[in-house]
Write a structure and sequence with these properties.
Strands 1, 2, 3, 6 and 7 form a five-stranded antiparallel sheet that branches. This protein has a four-stranded antiparallel sheet with strand order 5-4-8-9, with no helix packed on it. Strand 4 and strand 5 form a beta hairpin. It has one helix and nine strands, in the order αβββββββββ. Helix content is about 30%, strand content about 30%. The protein is rod-shaped and about 100 Å long.
Length: about 160
């Protein structure tokens, strides 16, 4: 009779150890999933609150200024980008990705000036000056991206 009790006690203790191990693993996994969901939610909220639009006139001669061969400067592409979202964006262009004809524009080739404001608030316009020589008489495309908000601008030189 006592051998049956001891066997049952050993099986009960073994079952408790296995259950504790499974519970510990589940708690760790649930914590990791919860952290990932929280991070993704924050990123999604930023993406929803961010929206930009390129408001430059594609037919204007002000979009592209050819290089002056006398001083050796590159040409300049000038884009006016309006913050149409609810979030204030970094006025120094942090997190802003710019492509011209599929080529990435580095921060060395990009100057940003916010018009009529110190911060790039909702409704404010930023002037982007991009040092880039383009083929004349061709179609070109500029893409500006910030937090999954993408604005595409097509123009001719």
């Amino acid at each position: 009779m006592s051998s049956t009790s001891i066997s049952s006690l050993i099986l009960f203790i073994a079952a408790m150890i296995v259950a504790a191990g499974v519970a510990g693993t589940l708690v760790t996994t649930v914590t990791d999933v919860s952290s990932s969901v929280s991070t993704q939610t924050g990123n999604t909220a930023d993406a929803i609150d961010t929206d930009i639009a390129i408001i430059s006139d594609a037919g204007s001669d002000a979009v592209y200024d050819e290089d002056d061969e006398d001083d050796g400067d590159d040409g300049t592409v000038t884009l006016y980008v309006k913050n149409t979202g609810e979030k204030t964006l970094a006025s120094d262009g942090t997190g802003l990705d710019v492509l011209v004809d599929g080529e990435y524009v580095s921060s060395d080739e990009l100057e940003i000036e916010i018009h009529d404001d110190d911060h790039w608030r909702s409704g404010a316009v930023a002037e982007l000056e991009i040092d880039r020589t383009l083929e004349t008489g061709e179609e070109h495309r500029a893409v500006v991206t910030k937090n999954d908000s993408r604005a595409v601008f097509e123009f001719r030189t």
